[in-house]
Amino acid sequence: PTGQGYYRLGVVLLFTGFIYWAFTQPTEFDGFLKAQKDFIDDLYSGNLLADVSQDHKDNLDRIRGKIPKLDELMREEAEEDGTEFTSSSSTNNDSGINVQVDDYGNAVLEDEDEKFDDAMLEELLNRVDSNEDLE
Fold first, then answer.
1. How far apart are CA 109 and CA 120, in angstroms?
2. Which member of 18, 26, 90, 127 lies 3.0 to 4.6 Å from 132 by CB, making a disulfide possible if both were Cys?
3. Does residue 127 carry a pLDDT above 60?
4. Could you tell me if residue 105 is left (phi over 0), alpha (psi between -120 and 50 degrees) or otherwise beta?
């Protein structure tokens, strides 16, 4: 029939437009992929996890400055006892333990038995190195 060409052309254009629109709409899978990508990006950028451990690492040096040195503690103890404190790098106690103070003010304890054990171990290692009989 004549005069229906414009209507048919309009219907074909509308149908073609609808098909194009339907194919360009995002699917649920596209939404899932976008949500997953956003999650991974947030995870790697640190938006999801609190950096409490990193904050602790950053402030670790601040805590170290508050710890008193061994000399200061010994001086305070001497003041409480009413005795005079003399700073020395090595002191001997009645128990046979030698107290050494290292460069950082930390006490390094050496026991006489430990020195003897170290000497025996060193002698045993020397004998093994020289292939002597171990009896």
1. 19
2. 127
3. yes
4. left
